[in-house]
Amino acid sequence: MTVKIRFFARFRELLGTDIVTEVVPGTMFTSLITTTARKNPAGYAAIFDEKGAFHEFVILMKNGKRIELTDAAKTPVVDGDEIAVFPPVAGG
Amino acid sequence: MFSEWELKRYKRQMMLFGDDGQERLKKAHIFIAGAGGLGSPISIYLAVAGVGTITIVDMDVVDQTNLNRQILHFDRDVGKKKTASAEEKLQALNPDITVNAIDVKIDESNAVKLVGKADGIVDAMDNYPTRYLLNDVAIAKEIPLFHGGIRGFYGQATTIIPGITPCLKCIFPKAPPKEVFPVVGVTPGIIGTIQANEVIKYLTGCGELLTNRLFIWDGMQAHAEELCVERNPACEACRGITTKTPARTKK
Ligand SMILES: [Zn+2]
Asked: Which of B28, B55, B97, B32 shows the shortest CA–CA distance to B250?
């Protein structure tokens, strides 16, 4: 099955976007993002802390619905899911 | 009532929203938090549109590194207070409005008083702690918060109507770390103009507001999109708050 990952803002600069990837059934949200982000160490560090947890400011969405960071590790992705990962943009 | 001069000044937009809309702009008081990258286009467009009273707050002095984007401030203003520079430019653009430029850091002790009886708050800040404070004030006073944020070629905006739409904390519960962010002037130009457009629509009652949607701009791809955003029932800032009056019937 395939899912699409969309990164925004700084995450997009580092990791690209609209990444369509093949996943095995039962793959959890967090592990999918972890695997995808590992392709670029700076991209990974922008999203995850040293312990491998999401930085607390990261926003996750699945098909337009917010996923709490604490739920992401136990939320499976399913075929056709569109996943959004973004930081709050802070400058003015 | 409008002078002959004002009638000519606003002629082309009164074709859009009539004397009534222009009157609403004239009677309105908008609070702009920040006279920097976002605050520049926001205040310029609200001033020329004829928003009757503009309060603009900033605590900084114009620096050379501001000049690539903060178009309210000119080369000759380096070293001057941003509020003095802003007041001069906005009054020169439109002497028929009142500009209150206040040189102070917005904090918990003064935020409610600074906003006063303003009809709306425009977020032109560069940090989340102050944004959260403005979010609290908007909720307490039941007035809209027009949010914008930028970084590099990227930007975001949304219009927050307390009690109806998600608040800033519903959408962004935790602040990102502080940084010296890269930016090119066109990005706050685009996002700030969207915020000013929202204020004008809100005040005149025309169009559809950018509510329950987070507008996201990617200048590198020249691509805009929006994400639906929802209230968080457990939000520490707006939990349990309801507003009976729909925003558009205010005034
Ligand atoms: Zn909220």
From this structure: B28
Count interface pairs A-B at CB distance under 8 A.
Answer: 79
> pLDDT tens digits for B219-239?
999 999 999 999 999 999 999
Tell me, letter by letter, the H, E, C secondary structure of A73-85: HHCECCCCCEEEE
**A69 lies within 8 A of chain B by CB:** no
Domains of chain B by residue range:
4-228
Q: For chain B, list residues whose CB is within 8 angstroms of any CB belonging to chain A.
A: 34, 36-39, 123-128, 148-152, 154-156, 171-172, 174-179, 181, 183, 188, 216, 218, 220, 227-230, 232
Q: What is the mean pLDDT of residues B132-146?
A: 98
**B4-228 adopts what CATH topology?**
Rossmann fold (3.40.50)
How many angstroms from the chain centroid is the CA of residue A25?
17
Ligand 1 centroid to B164 CA: how many Å? 10
User: What's the whole-number mean pLDDT along residues B183-204?
Assistant: 98
B57 pLDDT tier (thresholds 50, 70, 90):
very high
Give pTM, 2 decimals.
0.96
Residue B113: partners with Cβ closer than 8 Å, 6 or more residues away? none
Of B34, B154, B177, the CB nearest to A92: B34
> What residue ranges define each of the domains in chain A, with the CATH number in brackets?
2-86 (3.10.20.30)
